[in-house]
Design goal:
The protein is mainly alpha-helical. It has helices at 14-20, 23-26, 30-46, 52-71, 83-95, 98-101, 108-144, 164-189, 208-215, 224-229, 232-258, 286-309, 324-346, 352-359, 366-375, 380-397, 406-410, 420-423, 426-431, 441-455; strands at 149-154, 157-163, 191-192, 219-220, 266-267, 349-350. The strands form 3 sheets. The chain has a two-stranded antiparallel ribbon.
């Protein structure tokens, strides 16, 4: 008979057993379940429900079970539905009827809420550590790319010259926000649900503050009904993971473009590329493409959980069993993507000469040509029009702005003088960016200094 089957006259249909069971995926929570059970046992001993001797037997039995589950020798069954009831049933087999006393003062609802929350908190910390590695990698690349000049793009059209360091630090800011999002979510996760019972509390004078200390939580939940039915922490985790993957996907897209013959700004290591089964010349950026592709499944996991939760009345509902598989998948996806991405970046060669040559085409100094005329007293709108006409003239002549003679420039405005060539020199164009947060050397070095200070806090 099932552990909950006392009021039932018939056994459940075998098909329902299969449909209802979650042991196929929630076995991943076994360590958290055993940790929570030991803490619960210690608390029940503290309030006199268990004796010291009983507690010792229970802890020994649970630790033995943990070793067996880790070794893959524990007989986990569909009949016992989930990891929580499997552990309880196996504990009873090991230590006898005493194992049944452990569930006193506890519901599977608050037990599951605890295990899932502990798991998500720990995986959040793991992902934050992996984001830190990526941030450190970006910082190193940016530090070595201060003097590397490349085109900056808008609409995927060459727009203005920037430093490679500046471009890399733009991604540093994205992943820094991702780190902060996970850290912020972790703060809200850090609330103990155990002791809430099924949904209204328990009939024992439990010491939840003691449980909080044993399990390392910062706070105890204030409302039992909310505690057992809350999955906001999992939704926040999935949301932060989705935004992180969006950033990884954007970066992947640029690496894919940059590695193409049309750009040839980077050379991704052979270790993170593959070949074609038919075209021997191909070197495909599969690692970056897979990161880009796997972003969609993480989005899907977020939407699935939001959809599960959107129509549920309080408190616990069986629908909430669907909260775990997607999150487990997101954890595995995000972890491998961060690992692959950091290693791929470390092993990617940035081709500075090709980047610099690309800056020479596309009229990236046209805005500065207009600003030059502004300093000569013309209105910006008139200057913009003049610079546009000069660009069109250069396209027709297959020339660059800096290659035009002063006489040619004066055809468009008498305000041009010999000092125009210094004003539209690419290095000058970059250094003329005087605003805070710009691509000038001074600003980029300041951003690197701030990034270094931030990394030291992690």
């Amino acid at each position: 008979m099932k552990l909950w089957g006392g009021r039932f006259k018939e056994g459940t249909n075998a098909l329902l057993d299969q449909f209802n069971a979650s042991i196929g995926f929630d076995y991943k929570l076994f360590a958290e379940d055993i940790e929570g059970s030991i803490a619960h046992g210690k608390m029940m001993c503290k309030i006199g429900v268990l004796t010291e001797e009983e507690l010792a037997q229970i802890i020994t039995g649970l630790r033995t079970l943990q070793g067996e589950i880790e070794a893959g020798t524990a007989p986990l069954t569909l009949e016992n539905e989930d990891i929580h009831m499997n552990i309880e049933a196996l504990l009873v087999e090991k230590i006898g009827p005493l194992g049944k006393k452990l569930h006193t003062g506890r519901s599977r609802n608050d037990q599951v809420a605890l295990d899932f929350r502990l798991y998500t908190m720990r995986k959040t910390e793991t992902i934050m550590a992996k984001i830190t590695v990526l941030l450190e990698t970006l910082y190193e690349i940016a530090g070595s790319g201060v003097e590397v000049i490349m085109p900056g793009y808008t609409h995927l059209q060459r727009a203005q010259p920037v430093r490679l360091a500046f471009h890399m630090m733009a991604y540093f800011q994205m992943f820094k926000r991702d780190y902060a999002r996970f850290a912020d979510a972790l703060e809200r996760m850090d609330v103990l649900p155990l002791g809430s019972g099924a949904m209204s509390g328990v009939n024992y004078p439990t010491d939840r503050m003691y449980l909080k200390e044993l399990l390392g939580f910062s706070e105890v939940s204030d409302n039992a009904m909310d505690a057992v039915s809350d999955r906001d922490f999992a939704i926040e985790f999935q949301s932060a993971a989705s935004i992180l993957m969006m950033h990884l996907s954007r970066f992947s897209e640029e690496l894919i473009l940059w590695s193409s013959t049309e750009f040839k700004f980077i050379e991704i290591s052979d270790q993170f590329t593959t070949g074609s089964s038919i075209m021997p010349q191909k070197k495909n950026p599969d690692a970056a493409e897979l990161v880009r592709g796997k972003t969609g499944r993480v989005y899907g996991n977020l939407m699935a959980l939001l959809t599960v939760m959107k129509g549920l009345p309080l408190a616990y509902n069986k629908d909430m069993q669907e909260d775990k598989e997607g999150l487990f998948d997101t954890v595995e996806t995000v972890e491998i993507c961060l690992d692959i991405f950091s290693e791929m970046l470390k092993d990617t060669e940035f081709l500075a000469d090709n980047m610099r040559k690309a800056v020479e085409k596309g009229f990236l100094n046209a805005t500065d040509l207009a600003d030059y005329l502004v300093h000569k007293g013309l209105s910006f709108r008139d200057c913009h029009a003049i610079a546009g006409k000069i660009t069109a003239y250069c396209i027709e002549k297959d020339s660059t702005i800096e290659a035009l003679s002063l006489e040619e420039l004066k055809q468009f405005s008498e305000a041009f003088e010999a000092d125009v060539y210094a004003a539209i020199d690419i290095e000058t164009v970059i250094e003329n960016k005087a605003s805070y947060g710009s691509t000038s050397r001074k600003s980029v070095l300041e951003s690197l200094e701030k990034a270094n200070a931030f990394l030291k806090t992690l």
